Amino acid sequence: MAFFIETLFNGLMAGMLYSLVALGFVLIFKASGVFNFAQGAMVLFAALAMARFAEWVPGWIGVESKWLANVLAFVLAGACMFVVAWLVERLVLRHLVNQEGATLLMATLGITYFLDGLGQTLFGSDIYKIDIGMPKDPIFAFQSVFEGGVLVSQEDLIAAGIAAVLVAGLSLFFQKTGTGRALRAVADDHQAAQSIGIPLNRIWVIVWCVAGVVALVAGMIWGSKLGVQFSLTTVALRALPVIILGGLTSVPGAIIGGLIIGVGEKLSEVYLGPYVGGGIEIWFAYMLALVFLLFRPQGLFGEKIIDRV
């Protein structure tokens, strides 16, 4: 039983990190109808900025405190993501209003390669380390309940806590603030939102900024776990089954979908892997996503689209 709980817990922790990346897709799609293929590049760019600023800031201001350097690096990296969001709206989205979805998708592909190149130019192409002080050593929990306890990664636990706080903050932002309600109005109908005076361009900048902050937090956590390298862009591919499962228009769906995928991967690898030769964790999420595309393409919480002809 202890081993099952340990596997389940590890799956939940991984699922929260998947959800964090999937949130970027959902936020931008809800507000602009754009499937942002550049989300992985945004995660990488943000992680590169965070890692390099953390190295440069102590020399700039002459401080030895790693905590202060990380805080300032986070602020500077966030400012970079705000600039990226403003440039995307100003130079790309503003000129593609009411264009076909394929056109917008190709535009985000262009943004992907631009951010990849810009990241290498500004921050370099080596493998960098992000050290935000998360403990790496695992601990044994519930020792009084299970013999030997349950092995828990402190790093995964803190990362999941950060992700949960961010998700809760975004939920409050969307539900309780005037800007959040404007974002939901734009998501429902662009033209209707414009007709009542909601500035579409400003809303797009805000939502790309929010997605940039989400990408920064995701890049910071994944960079701390895996190191900042250009393979980090593939994290976005792990989030695709999550949004297919949860629904491309649902923030809660991104969270629940990530948890299901994370738990499913770990449990299937442990309990089904020995019977199919192993490696099931690599393709389990995509097979599950394929099943949903066949039988429920809008996902668990996505909006069903009805076309009247």
Envelope shape: globular
What is the typical, i.e. mean, pLDDT? Answer: 82
Strand content: under 5%
What is the CA-atom radius of gyration, in angstroms? 20 Å
Q: Kindly give the count of domains.
A: 1
Order of helices and strands: HHHHEEHHHHHHHH
Main sheet properties: 2 strands, antiparallel
In spatial order, strands of the major sheet run 1-2
Distance from first to last alpha carbon: 55 Å
Q: Regions with pLDDT < 50 over 5+ consecutive residues?
A: none
Number of helices: 12
Q: TL;DR?
A:
72% of the residues lie in helices and 3% in strands. The protein is mainly alpha-helical and 309 residues long.
Descriptive overview:
The protein has one domain. Helix 1 crosses helix 9, helix 3 packs across helix 8 and helix 9 (235-246) packs across helix 10. Strand 1 and strand 2 (150-153) form a beta hairpin. It has helices at residues 2-32, 39-61, 66-91, 101-123, 154-176, 178-188, 190-195, 200-226, 235-246, 251-271, 273-276, 280-295, and strands at 138-141, 150-153. The chain is mainly α and 309 residues long. Strands 1-2 form a two-stranded antiparallel sheet.
